[in-house]
Amino acid sequence: MQNVLIISGHPNLQESVGNATILHDIAQALPQAEIRRLDTLYPDYQIDVAAEQAALLKADVIVWQFPFSWYSVPGLMKLWIDQVMVHGFAHGSTAKLGGKKLILSFTTGAPQALYATDGFFGHTIEDYLIQFETTARLCNLDLQPPVYTSGISYAGRDDALIAQQKTAAKEHAARLVAALNMLSPEPARVA
């Protein structure tokens, strides 16, 4: 398996069902992958840029794992991007990340049906990914197809809904492992 780095941008995994389950299952399936939980590492939002850049340099495949937040990444992950993915490191004539693969792995609170040109939002999920495509292009990253799951909302959770969300998150983790396996000659599996 290639060196896989997963950047978890959830602002509070203690309250997560979807992202926490995905990360748990990925850690079980890929124990050699490095998972950097930004909420645990930086509860004060003081990013250790040198440590984050060193982790990125070791990676062959980078996964950004996050809940869709206002149709993008949560604030903590946006801060991480702003401070870590800077000119001279991530892009520009002395960029160091070129050729690495990037996978966007995310959950949305709204159901999939709302993400359609004739749906409530008037746009597909892919329409919202243009900024990530542009970032990947700027940084010469090889953007892979996204892995996402919709309908992982905090609203109205009861035991039955939590069980459904955990099942959906486990399926998400299995799809992410499959995507990572497509990039590596040595397959991994979900435990």
Arithmetic mean pLDDT: 93
Structural class: alpha/beta
Number of DSSP-assigned strands? 6
First-residue to last-residue Cα separation: 16 Å
- Biggest β-sheet strands, sense, barrel: 6 strands, parallel
Low-confidence stretches: none
Number of helices: 6
Q: What's the helix-strand series?
A: EHEHHEHEHEEH
Sum up the overall morphology in one term: globular
User: How much strand content do the residues show?
Assistant: 5-15%
Report helical residue fraction: 25-40%
Q: Evaluate the radius of gyration.
A: 16 Å
Keywords:
alpha/beta; 6 helices; 191 residues; globular; 6 strands; 36% helix; six-stranded parallel sheet; single chain
Describe the protein:
The protein is built from six helices and six strands. β3, α4 and β4 form a beta-alpha-beta unit. α1 crosses α6. Strands 1, 2, 3, 4, 5 and 6 form a six-stranded parallel beta sheet that branches. The longest helix is centred in the last third of the chain and has 24 residues. The chain starts with a strand and ends in a 9-residue tail after the last helix. The chain is α/β, with parallel strands linked by helices and 191 residues long. Helix content is 36%, strand content 15%. The mean pLDDT is 93.
Give a summary of the structure in a few sentences.
The protein is α/β, with parallel strands linked by helices and 191 residues long. The chain is 36% helix and 15% strand.
